[in-house]
Write a structure and sequence with these properties.
- By secondary structure, this protein is α+β, with helices and mostly antiparallel strands.
- The chain is built from two helices and five strands; from the N terminus they run E-E-E-E-H-E-H.
- The protein is about 15% helix and about 30% strand.
- Strand 2 and strand 3 form a beta hairpin.
- It is globular, with a radius of gyration of 13 Å.
- The relative contact order is 0.26.
Length: about 70
């Protein structure tokens, strides 16, 4: 994986942040882990190895590629 930072809405440059894998075009999201059992219970079709992060909508609308 070769990551290129797309952008962040964080004032201190830590997270949340969007990255693009330059090889595949996939998007990688850095954010705070959703771990409260009552929140995770609402997420459907969870596969082994998957995890969930919380990011502000503004991060996607400002930095996510449209293609």
């Amino acid at each position: 994986m070769q990551l290129r930072m797309l952008g962040t809405t964080s004032d201190d440059g830590k997270c949340p942040t969007l990255y693009e894998d330059a090889t595949t075009g996939d998007i990688v999201v850095q954010g705070y882990t959703v771990s409260a059992p009552e929140d995770v219970a609402q997420i459907q079709n969870v596969l082994p190895g998957e995890s969930f992060v919380r990011i502000p909508r503004e991060l996607l609308t400002r930095f996510a590629p449209t293609e």
